[in-house]
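User: structure tokens for MoxR family ATPase, please.
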Amino acid sequence: MLTTHHQVLACAVATRTPVLLWGPPGIGKTATIRSLAEAMGFPLEIVIAAIHEPSDFSGLPAPQGDRVRYLPPEWAVRLAEAGHGILFLDEISTAPPAVQAALLRVVLERRVGQLALPKDVVVIAAANPPDETAGGWELGPPLANRFCHLDWPVPEVHEWNTGMTAGWVAPHRPEALDEWRSMLPAARGLIAGFLASAPHHLFNLPQDPVQRGRAWPSPRTWEMASRMLAAALALGGSEELVVTAVGSCVGMGIAYEFGALVSGDRLLDPVAVLSDPENSPLPTRPDKLIALLMATAAVASHDPDQYWTPAWTVIARVADTRRDIAAVAARPLARVYQEHLRRGKLLSMPREAVGPLRELLEAAGIL
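Assistant: Done. Predicted tokens:
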């Protein structure tokens, strides 16, 4: 059975989210990535960032007539020719700031010089905390904000002894992760609902230089968190997995708050509510109710043919007592209505939703 940190790594690989493994030297980060590449059948390119120049990532200038081309290094060419693989950027915290700056396009835009890496190239990095590395550098905020960050633990003695005597269990990609895209609308809705209740968590650049080099919330990392959350939900969505997956992108403090909101006694499940919109129990806490309604709106926006009427039925139930909360979820659905109308498709409105939300629906041009 995969441990939580192995599951989160699998989520990052499945969603092609760049992931940075933090941990002291010698605990098996590189060995884990080697085993992962072998299990996936992916070619592995290990690039030690600290011993490379910025031009090794931005491309080597090569004049050609009145133009200059930026030639990629050989490892990038091999990945492009293979069409898939793992790019493992090792010792990234010992790379000087100029090299870190050159890595920005590699991590976010997946470009090395003028070469675009295929979408099936997974970007993984590893770093030692700067205080445990000779000549280490804090990771700059622009680069740190392009990774999800995973603290890689020192193995327990019994785990290590078992591996030594019986062989190491190679990390693998659970088949359930193939369904992560189907969970993405619900994940986006849950995150949107959380931020509707806690808007101050959308962006917060830490003042502490150390924390700036780790996970912190921004619109970019919340988008990454939505993919990681979708993968975590595909794996069953235990509270520990949800918190760790989201925390790897936006920080663990916020992730615990998020986990308490969307998990608690049971995970908020928008699809289950939409399957029985008239009778499904709804949360009484306003923040939980907003999160659930935003998740149902997101699912209905993704598949209005199936969920349009059930979503409005749920919103109408809430509007009877909390019109302000219902309006939060009604707004994105109103935009979906307008977009379909522009394409010549009319989405009908359930009659029970019209009364409590007439003013909002009229303003949106639905009535």
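User: Anything notable?

Assistant: Strands lie at 19-22, 44-48, 60-64, 67-71, 84-90, 111-112, 115-116, 120-127, 148-151.
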